[in-house]
Amino acid sequence: MAFTVGLVGAGQFAGQFATLFHHHPGVSAVHVTDVVPSRAADLVHSAGLDGTFDTFDEMLASPVDAVAIFTQRWTHGPLVVKALRAGKHVYSAVPMAISTEEIAAIIEAVRETGLTYMMGETSYYNPATVFARQKLASGEFGRLFYGEGDYVHDMDLGFYEAYQYSGGADWKSTASYPPLLYPTHSIGGVLGAWPTHATAVSAIGVVDQRGDGVFDRAVSQFDNDFSNATALFELDAGGSMRVNEFRRVGYPSHLRESRFRWFGTEGSFEQLATTTVWQNRTGVEDISHLIDTRSSLSTDDAALARIAPALREAFVSGYAEVHEADRGRIPTELGSLPNGHEGSHHFLVDDFVRAVNEQTLPPVNAWQAARFTLPGVIAHESARRGGERLIIPDFGDPRV
After folding, report:
1. Calpha distance 154→76 (Å, rounded)
2. What CATH number does the domain containing 80 carry?
3. DSSP letter string over 105-146?
4. pLDDT value of position 1
5. Does residue 113 sit in the same domain as residue 151?
6. What was the pLDDT predicted at 216?
7. According to the model, what pLDDT value does residue 297 have?
8. Strand ranges inside 281-362, DSSP E
9. Is 63 helix (H, G, I), strand (E, B) or coil?
10. Is residue 24 part of a domain?
11. What pLDDT does 335 receive?
């Protein structure tokens, strides 16, 4: 049974997902709303969607069955709760929210309403994470005791343009968004393969020195001057996880913006920008051919026109070889459409649609989303306190 979707936000990311929702056989109609009405109208026209709503409240008052939220990253929490309380299933871009209280409110709303919530975390479907899940399931890691996740996305490679597009005249006040409040591309990849959660953290922030008004506490609406941050987490399963969130870094993030490492007692996995290896006591195996994605779309495709040129590479990836076992369940209607973020977009949309239609928990449900997001929230507070070790609350395992 197909359902209707309302997109909230018609910016650079929404257009890609609008196309996928529109063509998914489990979705019957897609509408859009945006605080800039012309953006919503343009997206409806370019993607052949079903219409616009003037406001978010008007969308919530409509018969739309689900909403997909693509607004600015610090706005998600309250919008998600409002949508759930209005009786809508919710797909939300990352992060889940930016405070413990907001995350708790989402989980409570999901528990009380019984509606579907899914956070659209790309790293859960990252080929490295898929491969590591397979290796863990087969026992080849032995006991995992350490994981690393790096989200190394330099501001000069697309983020200036993205913040200027979304932030208007005051874009510098929002471009200072704290790196550790956007933690899911690093944490989600590590914990997407390793079924545990973080229990405590100590983090260090690097004060920015560019001097261009970004990451300037006098300008920042987040009172933030950290452009880079590193966090070390203790894990419930024993062992540790370290993540880096870097926004000033000499690294080709257009080639691989998230990279991972896992170490176990019997095997280990490591990535660089263009090389990936599996290792054990007998030697090293280059598995780059299993992990690298094949481009399925030209960068001059019309669907990419609204995206900053330096960000477009993230939206043109195909599937990796390790995806092939799961690729068969993707509807054929999506097969020739734009994919992105190392083959994740098709899986993200399909898992949400399946969860709503089949009344099942999606992989990155509210409880899992909290475990991908809240550690970063607490880590940012630790960094602000000079690395103080802080306890991370946990909301438990998923409940229907």
Report:
1. 23
2. 3.40.50.720
3. HHHHHHHHH---EEE--GGGG-HHHHHHHHHHHTTTT-SEEE
4. 82
5. no
6. 97
7. 45
8. 283-286
9. coil
10. yes
11. 87
Name residue 33's beta-bridge partners. Answer: 8
Q: How many helices (H) and strands (E) does the chain have?
A: 14, 14
Which domain does 131 fall in, by range?
123-320+365-391
Convert 224-282 into a string of H (helix), E (strand) and C (coil): CCEEEEEEEEEECCCCEEEEEEECCCCCCCCCCCEEEEEEECCCEEEECCCCEEEEECC
Q: 92 with 174, same domain? A: no
Q: How many CB atoms lie within 10 A of CB 137?
A: 10
Q: Given this model, what pLDDT does residue 399 score? A: 74
Q: How many domains does the chain have?
A: 2
In the chain, which residues have pLDDT < 70?
294-315, 400
What pLDDT digit, counting tens, does each position of 105-151 carry? Answer: 999 999 999 999 999 999 999 999 999 999 999 999 999 999 999 99
**The two structure tokens encoding residue 46:** 């370019």
206 neighbors 178 (Cβ within 8 angstroms): no
- Residues 6 or more apart whose CB falls under 8 angstroms from that of 358 comprise none
Domain boundary (89, 122, 155) is at: 122
